[in-house]
Amino acid sequence: MTAQGEAKQGSASKWLNAELQYDSGVYNKHQVVMVRGQGATVWDEQGRSYIDCVAGYGVANIGHCHPDVVRAIKEQAEKLIVMPQTLPNDKRAEFLTELVSVLPQGLGRVFLCNSGTEAMEAAKKFAITATGRQRFVSMRRGFSGRTLGALAFTWEPKYREPFGDAVDNRNVDFITYGSVEELRAAVTDQTAAVILEPVQGEGGVRPASPEFIQEARRITRERGALLILDEIQTGFCRTGKMFACEHSGVIPDGMTLAKAMAGGVPVGAFAMTAEVADRMPGGGHGTTFGGNPLAMAAGVAAIRAMKREGMAEQAREKGAYFMERLRAIRSPKIREVRGLGLMIGVELKEKSAPYISALEHEEGVLALAATPLVVRFLPPVTISKEQIDQVVAAFERVLGSVNPREGRQAELAGVREEKQTE
Ligand SMILES: *Cc1c(COP(=O)(O)O)cnc(C)c1O
């Protein structure tokens, strides 16, 4: 190794060691230090490039470091970074106007926060005050976030059980995702809201049928409950529409948003009807950082870029192409390829972790798990067809080369499915 190579190696392990030493330990760190990103490509400290089908867990929909977002952040940083929501701000007003213009008709009011789980907390509180009810219906395999309130809607027991009764989900009924019968039985005159992802992400990349979402709309309306769609992962062009609800034509009473909304900067929102918003008492909810001008500037630039560059259309076309190519792979290890737009899952007949690890280490492709059996691809919408071809070819190679019984690859990369999740 050259002296320069050694120096690079040395500094890489320095950063990695610092993370391993000081991080809380809840994440399984890969043996790599990422330093730069552009479009659908990221680079590690050694200068090695990766095609990024993780995209910050579905955040970088418009690509890493989109030039418009970069420029907006720079300009706003020199003007004003923080201003609480009691004090109106030009960028916040611009963002709200821009966001409401792309939301389904009727969702004209927005609570701004900083993450997906906070959006879900807001949804929960607004649903309670809007209906005067406290029961919820959530979905098996559903994922709603990690704070204690949102965790109550999250089905996977391993996320909840370490915290015992502090996760109070006595007022949550879980039903089978897609079962109209169970939904009909679960929604009563005590139900504040039905919470549902149009495509389950964490739960294995499972699109709901349009009919299920339409039935959920009908049943909730009949019984005076709200329909809240969790579009945190599906929103902002991921599924081939600006929002996944557009595939079924359903307009919910509330929608949780985050991830891709501001081109990579942390933002969350609960968008709702005026009827829902108006029932929350003044001061009933709030957050310090929500709606800060820096994030708002990034959000304005991101949403405008999505519209101008036809990102929804791109996701639809590229997603169809990506899935068609994946379905053409002849491998006895594949059980099913499914998804919507560029939210794609490949369910294997065995654990996905060794394949995800091999993709990273041998092929320079980043992918993520969704349940132990599924390889999930959430690339930036700006990914090129050539890059999709490269990902598919790489996936085909690792399907052929990885011997799952060895399982050593996964350990080396620190990819264990227990923690391979947002
Ligand atoms: C990521 C995600 C969340 C949680 O968002 P955070 O920003 O990680 O808190 C909630 N629901 C869904 C569907 C998600 O994909």
UniProtKB/TrEMBL annotation:
**What does the Swiss-Prot or TrEMBL cofactor note state?**
Binds 1 pyridoxal phosphate per subunit.
Q: Which UniProt keywords apply?
A: Amino-acid biosynthesis, Aminotransferase, Cytoplasm, Lysine biosynthesis, Pyridoxal phosphate, Transferase
PTM sites of type N6-(pyridoxal phosphate)lysine: 259
For the ligand (pyridoxal 5'-phosphate), the binding residues are: 116-117, 143, 230-233, 288
User: Which reaction(s) are listed as its catalytic activity?
Assistant: [amino-group carrier protein]-C-terminal-gamma-(L-lysyl)-L-glutamate + 2-oxoglutarate = [amino-group carrier protein]-C-terminal-N-(1-carboxy-5-oxopentan-1-yl)-L-glutamine + L-glutamate
Which pathway, per its entry?
Amino-acid biosynthesis; L-lysine biosynthesis via AAA pathway; L-lysine from L-alpha-aminoadipate (Thermus route): step 4/5
Keyword Magnesium in annotation: no
Q: What is its EC number?
A: 2.6.1.118
Which co-factors does it depend on?
pyridoxal 5'-phosphate
Broadest EC class assigned to this enzyme: transferase
Amino-acid positions noted as binding substrate in the UniProt annotation, renumbered to this chain: 146, 287
Does the keyword field hold Amino-acid biosynthesis? yes
| InterPro entries in alphabetical order | AcOrn/SuccOrn_fam (IPR004636), Aminotrans_3 (IPR005814), Aminotrans_3_PPA_site (IPR049704), Class-III_PLP-dep_AT (IPR050103), LysJ (IPR037537), PyrdxlP-dep_Trfase (IPR015424), PyrdxlP-dep_Trfase_major (IPR015421), PyrdxlP-dep_Trfase_small (IPR015422)
Query: Which compartment or compartments is the protein found in?
Result: Cytoplasm
HAMAP family xref list: LysJ_aminotrans_3
State the family it belongs to: Belongs to the class-III pyridoxal-phosphate-dependent aminotransferase family. LysJ subfamily.
Q: What does this protein do?
A: Catalyzes the transfer of the amino group of L-glutamate to [LysW]-aminoadipate 6-semialdehyde, generating [LysW]-gamma-L-lysine.
Could you give the subunit structure recorded for this chain? Answer: Homodimer.
Entry protein name? [LysW]-aminoadipate semialdehyde transaminase
| Gene behind the chain | argD_2
